[in-house]
Amino acid sequence: MPFVTTKDGVEIFYKDWGSKSAQPIMFHHGWPLSSDDWDAQILFFLQHGYRVVAHDRRGHGRSAQVDSGHDMDHYAADAFAVTEALDLRNAVHIGHSTGGGEVARYVARHGEPAGRVAKAVLVSAVPPLMVKTEANPEGLPIEVFDGFRAATAANRAQFFLDVASGPFYGFNRDGATVQQGVIQNWWRQGMMGSTKAHYDGIAAFSETDQTDDLKAITVPTLVLHGDDDQIVPIADSALKSVELLTNGTLKTYPGFPHGMLTTHHDVINPDLLAFVKG
């Protein structure tokens, strides 16, 4: 399997498909998943002639299960290690949830300074800050994330099953069409990763203030969010992010859940393509 080794010696698994002369699109997955969560987008963009790249975050999927570096700084640096190793230029970086935070930090601190980024997309993304603080009174109470940590430590397998079966895809909503294969695939991806990475990653996605990252980004940035996102509430994330971006565009989807890239890929993919081509 293909791996890139980071400066601190961590092996990061990646996929790199399509013509190496085509414009690259790099995908950044959410917690606690892997690059497999982008299947519907990777195939779509590959069929449209793009070079598609996706990696497993450290401690997730097939990447090394190290005991340190599970924070947004390392996530972004690891992504930069992949882009440097593959020499990706004029790339579009698309991130979902925690991966959206990774994209924001990557573009602000690595991608734009190195001249490697053309555009960015934040989908159901965690920036600017999820947790409630004095400066962010609209955020979620720390007790919510303490509950995530407790559930991860006590019975990660059951917790992951409950998340995928319920709020992540909106399968807990009245009239929802529950897709068992989607639930099982989410659980499979999560259980491939390290419990240490998943436990530490909760602080990374909930307590990292990315206000300055968003302000630093100048490339065109598309912000996509469903207004029935039960994991990352739209009012605390997308609606704030687009105000901080100097070149941001917001598109919202009535009734769509956090995992809309999977449940509504037939709607989201054409919108992504239009932005990439535009």
State the main characteristics.
single chain; 278 residues; alpha/beta; Rossmann fold; eight-stranded mixed β-sheet; globular
- Poorly predicted runs are none
Number of domains: 1
Oligomer: single chain
Biggest sheet details: 8 strands, mixed
What's a concise summary of this model?
It contains 10 helices and 8 strands. By secondary structure, the protein is of the alpha/beta class. It has a single domain (3-277), classed as Alpha/Beta hydrolase fold, catalytic domain (Rossmann fold), CATH 3.40.50.1820.
Your description of this structure?
This protein is of the alpha/beta class. Helices cover 42% and strands 16% of the residues. The chain has helices at residues 39-47, 72-86, 98-111, 142-165, 180-192, 195-207, 211-216, 238-244, 260-263, 265-277; strands spanning 3-5, 11-17, 24-28, 51-55, 91-96, 117-123, 221-226, 248-253. An 8-stranded mixed β-sheet has the order 1-2-4-3-5-6-7-8, with helices on both faces. The protein is globular, with a radius of gyration of 17 Å. The chain starts with a strand and ends with a helix. The mean pLDDT is 98.
